[in-house]
Design brief:
273 residues, alpha/beta, Rossmann fold, 2 domains, four-stranded antiparallel sheet, 9 helices, 22% strand, disordered C terminus
């Protein structure tokens, strides 16, 4: 897919921690409607890249453009307001709250009242707005098939169900772009199949653009439109899933295979579809 006006554009992002480079001049773009996966060995910089996109980290160099706007210096909350949501590698739910309340938290950026207009708004439109938000949340609960746990306390649920609740909270904002950090980590085969189906439906039926970090290559190959590979903080490949997985540089990063410079599809350069 090529687009002159991508939804997200990362321009030569470099990130360092105390002199250690987590990311080195990484650049890529994601078009509206794509399901774009980032893969690579442990420590390759994948989560650091998502943290730069979501605003948890500020890159030392480079720019991040979202919907044509430079968001490099924007706070995470401001990026959410623009239409960006995410899940985390480690669960970040409110364990003492119910599933329903956790998902409702994901819609707080859409609330219209504030400390000045709040009292007046409560009498004029708050109840109607509350009903609208509840309706949206119920749609998400039905979509992710978690109606049976809607009133359960999040901390009492199995790991797989908590991952599903975290996805529900992330999509409660109805973001244009959702960032998924290892959404299937720690799941059994059945749970992975369900999660892959939900992510695919979010992309195809709900129209959400997805950037996903995932270690399960079967899932990556099955549902991704394009794939980017990081290794030691550098991009070593980008393109269609089958092309990237056939790249000798990628095989070397994952399997330690030697690279034949003459047969590499990348020939030391990035590959783009």
């Amino acid at each position: 897919m090529n687009d002159k006006n991508p939804l997200l554009e990362v321009r030569d992002v470099t990130l360092t921690f105390g002199g250690v480079r987590a990311l080195s001049n990484v650049k890529f773009s994601v078009n509206k409607g794509e399901l774009f996966s980032i893969i690579g060995p442990n420590g390759a910089g994948k989560t650091s890249m998502l943290n730069c996109v979501s605003g948890r980290y500020n890159p030392n160099q480079g720019q991040i453009i979202f919907k044509g706007q430079d968001i490099t210096k924007l706070r995470p909350n401001d990026r959410c307001t623009l239409g960006m949501g995410r899940t985390f590698q480690n669960l970040a739910l409110f364990s003492h709250m119910t599933v329903l309340d956790n998902i409702m938290v994901g819609r707080h950026h859409l609330l219209k009242n504030n400390f000045i207009t709040g009292p007046l708004y409560w009498f004029s439109g708050a109840q109607k707005e509350e009903l609208t938000h509840r309706r949206e949340v119920e749609d998400i609960i039905d979509f992710l098939e978690i109606s049976h746990i809607r009133k359960s306390v999040a901390g009492t649920l199995s790991y797989g169900l908590r991952k599903r609740v975290e996805l529900a909270r992330a999509i409660a904002l109805r973001p244009d772009l959702i960032l998924l950090d290892e959404p299937m980590a720690g799941m059994n085969l059945e749970e992975k199949e369900d999660m892959a189906r939900y992510i695919n439906d979010l992309n195809e039926e709900w129209g959400m653009t997805v950037i996903m970090i995932e270690h399960d290559m079967g899932v990556v190959m099955d549902i991704s439109h394009r794939v980017m590979v990081l290794d030691f903080g550098k991009k070593i490949a980008e393109g269609l899933p089958e092309e990237v997985m056939a790249d000798p540089y990628v095989k070397k990063a994952y399997l330690g295979e030697e690279v034949d410079e003459e047969t590499s599809v990348n020939d030391g350069k990035e590959k783009s579809a």
